[in-house]
Amino acid sequence: xxxxILTAGGDCPGLNAAIRGIGKTAILQxxxxxxxxxxxxxxxxxxxxxxxxxxxxxxxxxxxGTILGTSRxxxxxxxxxxxxxxxxxPKLIKKHYDEMGFDCLxxxxxxxxQKTAALLSESGMNVIGIPxxxxxxxxxxxxxxxxxxxxxxxxxAIDRLHTTANSHKRxxxxxxxxxxAGWIALYSGIAGGGDVILIPEIEYDEKIICDYLVxxxxxKKNSSIVVIAxxxxxxxxxxxAGTYIAKMIxxxxxxxxxxxxxxxxxxxxxxxxxxxxxxxxxGAYAAELIAQKKFGVMVAMxxxxxxxxxxxxVGGKTRTVDPEHSLILQARSMxxxxxDGK
Length: 342
Ligand code: F6P
Fold this sequence. Notes:
Strand 1 (2-7), helix 1 (15-30) and strand 2 (33-37) form a beta-alpha-beta unit. It contains twelve helices and eleven strands. The chain has helices at residues 15-30, 41-45, 54-57, 89-100, 111-122, 147-168, 183-191, 206-218, 241-253, 273-291, 311-314, 326-333; strands at residues 2-7, 33-37, 49-52, 104-109, 127-131, 171-176, 196-198, 224-229, 257-261, 297-302, 305-310. The strands form two sheets. Strands 3-2-1-4-5-10-11 form a seven-stranded mixed β-sheet, sandwiched between helices. Strands 7-8-6-9 form a four-stranded parallel β-sheet, with helices on both faces. It binds 6-O-phosphono-beta-D-fructofuranose. Residues 10, 72, 110, 133-135, 177-179, 230, 267 line the site of 6-O-phosphono-beta-D-fructofuranose (F6P).
């Protein structure tokens, strides 16, 4: 069998571990031919591939990013205005897939990538998805690889903010990534001992946050840490959430407040051991599915068991944080503030 692997959407630590897991299992267990497709779905449109073998797969387990490159190309998206020389991208992809003689296409990506994978599957291609993103917001799986590495990076940053906040008796606000979900903020906020954690899934009230922080000051707490997800609602869209919240707290409480927008470091560097294991497991399982000719599915983790779910059930859906999540309930019992006064 001949398979093509692509990595699409935002990059993250663990992608190369997944590529290695698929490739080594496919080559060594099943004698398959493995190709890497450049820059996500763009590589299928532009016919850009590299042959992967044991040599190219060696030494990439611990390397961040993706050796194949990625893009946010969405081949099924239509331009608003009909463009006379617009190519039919899905048709071109199917043509190149057939010309390459692929028996299967493996797509590592987030919810947008899985939506494209589901549409390509519907158009008659053999497709398998692997859930990847630091946001951990892919429907149908309990966890995506990339998430643990991002939580490690964000937690280390919060640990560092504690010392400078204490030295200056300041409130430090840190904005973490996560797109429209609050998973990174929730986990790194708990791991880093955040006093206030704001996530898009819980509506916050500015007065409640400020009253809570002022109460901490009265209790002679030296400093406070506020962890916020980039996707929270902010009244003034002109600023980043972290900048807006820090300015609001500073003005309303009179306590010196500074912000850190953590940004792309959360997507960089070598994968955590957990992500190396998870990505390897997902990759190897995808190769097994190909050997079984089980297509049209996404690899998933459900209740600590690796399984697969239909691409049609997951494509394009976002898995957000349940406000009744056990971590939130436990944190509330320790008086962590989620901005809603509960
Ligand atoms: O999906 C991963 C992610 O890092 C999100 O957390 C973030 O909002 C987005 O990508 C940033 O997109 P881009 O890499 O296109 O700037």
